[in-house]
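thread: overnight batch results

M.L. [08:02]
morning all. the overnight job finished for the chain we discussed friday. pasting input first so we're all looking at the same thing
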Amino acid sequence: MADILSALEMILVPLNILGLFFGVAVGIAFGCMPGLSVNMGLALLFPLAFSFHGIGGILMLLGIYCGAIYGGSISAILLRTPGTPASVATTLDGYPMAVQMKQPGRALGLSTMASVFGGIFSTICLILLAPQLAKLALQFSKPEYFALAVFGLSIITSVSSGSVIKGVMGGLIGLFLATVGIDAMSGTIRFTADTTYLLGGVSFIPVLIGVFAFAQVLASVEDSYHGKRAEQHLHIDRAIPSLEDIKRVIVTLIRSSCIGTFIGCIPGTGGDIASFVSYDQAKHWSKNGKNFGNGEPEGIVASEAGNNSVSGGAFIPVLTLGIPGDGATAIMMGALMVQGLQPGPLLFVEKAPDVYAIFIGLFLANIIMGILGFSLIRLFVKVVNVPIQILLPIIILMTFVGTYSYNNSFNDVYVMVFAGIVGYFLNKLGFSMSAVIIGIILGGMAEQNFVGSLIMSDGSFDIFLTRPICLLFLAAAAISLLSPLFGKIFKKGKG
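M.L. [08:03]
and the structure it wrote out:
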């Protein structure tokens, strides 16, 4: 109890609370702008953390971390342009609800509620289960990571609302792009067209901005040219989710938060994987599974609860084992070490008040995120009501600036434009852009861990069948891939 009181004394300083509010607000701004990722926000404002006394700098960074994950859903819902890779799945139901169903307040309200719930849920899990979940995460080796990647790839069938075949083809395009560059295991140079730029592979951020943002701009220009696009005048009836919606999504909220927390505590994963897995499971278990992709509330909630619950889970290996799960937690770990907090098992003994301060700070960051999110929803929606002649140039500018700032490279801009043009035509042909992104994100992870697993087993495939966690993920992947086929057989038999 004394440690908790000491932690509260450290946090409840006006400057520290102000820093937390500032961090969340900046994080939301970074998250909702395509290309300006959570990692970039943390890296740019990392030096500012040193100007705070004690734990204040870490609280500000925690605010940026939580706010940026949530911020990606705003542009995903209103503009069909995910601000972060973790919000790609949110576009599938968020944009149809906001624009086609003309319920932007409902979509943003559900997104905000799910984000806050997922963040708080994972923080509670962090407080109660950190050592136990960290031990489970240690059971993951290359075979488990490969099986997890395969399971992620199997979700392509769920995000392909139209033709499953075209969804799989989109995934194969993504997998091919993931093979470009130097093979990490053998050092072989593949598909680089004799350019040094492609030696490092195709960066998925320019591709993501291209196929979602730039392709959408091209489609909007075409609609305006043919007079198909009417000016949007969306109004908000209510921003707080209704009791009926809450009852409808509560089970999905809890399930997706559990999935996100578990995936978050596995180093090397992230919010993008968590959101797609959560979306897939929500679609499989929902009574309204057929409505996913058409503005289904459970689809929005699943994606946002899944990716925001990663935040608490990701701190479990950082604090208990000193293992950062991704770039964002690596930056956070660096901030802890600068403040004299060495992550690891001894941290809970030697610096208990500081650990509790981090727990409480993460909890407060999610509360503040909810306050800012709900209070600014009416301001967010004004983006959609901006005349198309003004909005399109702004979006184009954001895509170019966001892409260039990612690596300070014009080559990334060229890739973004090319991906946008290809994405425009693929969209017209009914291909799933989400499937392409899943293939790029998980392709490299699947390949490297597959080869690594075979090296571990001297070329024997038995390694994938003799490890329980690996076998569980592979079985789940098989069920996910074959479920559309089983569904058709069942319907024919019933008919």
